[in-house]
Amino acid sequence: MNEKMTRREFLLLSGAAAAASFSTGCATNPVTGEKQLMLFTEANERDWDRLHAPHQFSADYGAFPDPALNAYVADVGSRLAALSHRPHMPYSFRVLHAVHVNAYTFPAGSIGVTRGILLAMESEAELAALLGHEIAHVACRHAASRMSQAVATQLVVGLGVMAVASKKEKYAALAAGLGALGSGLLLAKYSRDDERQADQWGHAYMVQAGQNPEGMVGLMQRLVAIHDREPNIVEVMFASHPMSRERLETAQQRVAGEYAAFQTRSQQREAYMDRTASVRAQREVILALQNALKALDAGRSGEADAFLAEARRLGPSDYTALLLSAKVLLVRDRPQDALALALAARQTPGSEAQAVHVCGMARLKQRQFDAAWQDFELYDRILPGNPEIAFWKGYTLEQMQRIQPASQEYLRYLQSGAEGEQAQYAYRRLVDWGVIKNETPAPPSEQQNKPARPPAASSGAKPPPHKKKKK
Ligand SMILES: [Zn+2]
After folding, report:
1. Which helix (H) or strand (E) holds 358?
2. Is residue 343 part of a domain?
3. CA of 195 to the centre of ligand 1 (A)
4. Would the pLDDT of 10 be above 60?
5. How many whole angstroms from 190 Cα to the centroid of ligand 1?
6. Residues near 110 by beta carbon (within 8 Å), at least 6 away in sequence
7. How far apart are the first and last CA of the chain?
8. Do 193 and 44 fall within a single domain?
9. Span from the CA of 134 to the centroid of ligand 1 (angstroms)
10. Is the pLDDT of residue 232 over 60?
11. What pLDDT shows up at residue 62?
């Protein structure tokens, strides 16, 4: 409210930003003109985006297989992006197959919205508000700014903690050997001020693009309502920063004030309902899956199974229903059943790399090493750059007694900066095989060559247990 923006200011800033070049060390927020700690260049932002966004999208079950719907969302988003303060960024938009209520952006503008949130919204104006908010995060360079602060304070590890998947879904992914990549760790955690700015400028962009400003209020009311009802399902503009009444009230004040004249515009409800018909047709499947996630989060596994079965019955070729069910079975040490569902998922429209990963893990757990290795190879071709795959390739090759290629994969895994039990396991193998020298000598008992732990046999695809150093 102190930061009310006039249309004139908006146009001035838009023009200024379009003309500006963002060079190394630039410390001015492209939108507000305020000083901003900035250790990341635009090239860094683009690299981060290009390297990490595809893995997050895969963890969210990839793009929803309706080209017309994806094109519609991209069209609404592109019109806003063109009006933003960084119109030259490589924005891209996709509808994700995940069912939780979420939307996010990577720093160069790779933006995803879930079918869960599309189902929750009811007008194009609301969609525009959502996309405007995400685009404003890019325009204000919020992710790069957060990353810069993390680097400056040496908190790189705590850099992003935005929960994207539900907690248990994330746990299932970890326990199933799918790794933390794609579980939201690569997304920036924004500050409250970042959120206020994204709301303010997102609102401005959508109004400039001809949308009804009421859409921002409608979106926020909807999300507040869902959040009150089922907090686990909503993790949008909210995971890192709760959706607050204050944000809603500020949006309402803007609509009643500076945007009052635009309230008569159409909110494009019918157009939105028409365009999202393919998502709406799956309403019951989506709700069943949301209920399954809720039950998983609450530890009610019997209930979760019932909802998953219901989702598969309602949507026999629903990629997410099949793959989420497969992951749950994998964690429960039922690899044969998990494999059957993951293979079925691979036959559905929209199938992507995660299903191949789950197949590989299910086969590994059944000691079908050749087949598992082929899955991991295929995964690397579809979606290169996932260090988790390097570990499991190494592990599979090790079980096949192919020590030389196994050591290469373990090295690749460690070079990615991996930490934790799997990293310790890989490191130990490389020391045992004489590939690397143990730089931090453990007691002699730990240095002796030891046979590889039995694979996954009983613990399945879980990471090899970490042996504590004796003191
Ligand atoms: Zn936000």
Report:
1. helix 353-365
2. yes
3. 5
4. no
5. 7
6. 49, 53, 57, 90, 91, 92
7. 60
8. yes
9. 6
10. yes
11. 97
Query: Residue 48 and residue 343: Cα distance in Å, rounded?
Result: 32
User: What residue type is assigned to position 208 of the chain?
Assistant: Q
What is the pLDDT, as a whole number, of residue 463? 37
Single pTM value for the model:
0.82
379 and 409 co-located in one domain: no
- 121 and 229 share one domain: yes
Cβ 107 vs Cβ 250: under 8 Å:
no
Q: Are 350 and 358 in contact (CB under 8 A)?
A: no
Asked whether residue 447 carries a pLDDT value surpassing 50, the answer given is no
User: What SS3 class is residue 431?
Assistant: helix
User: Distance between CA atoms of 305 and 69, rounded to whole angstroms?
Assistant: 30
Q: How far apart are CA 132 and CA 138, in angstroms?
A: 10
**DSSP 8-state secondary structure symbol assigned to residue 14:** H
CA distances from 426 to 271, 352, 388 (A): 54, 27, 12
420: containing domain: 390-471
Residues in the chain: 471
CA 27 – ligand 1 centroid, Å: 21
- Measured in Å, residue 382 CA sits from the centre of ligand 1 at 30
Rounded to the nearest angstrom, the distance between the alpha carbon of 193 and the centre of ligand 1 is: 10
What are the backbone angles phi and psi of residue 377, rounded to the nearest 5°?
-60, -45
Domains held by the chain: number? 3
Q: For residue 86, report the distance from its CA to the centre of ligand 1, in Å.
A: 17
With a CB cutoff of 8 Å and minimum separation 6, the contacts of 73 are: 93, 94, 95, 113, 118, 127, 131
Q: How far is the CA of 67 from the centre of ligand 1 (A)?
A: 26
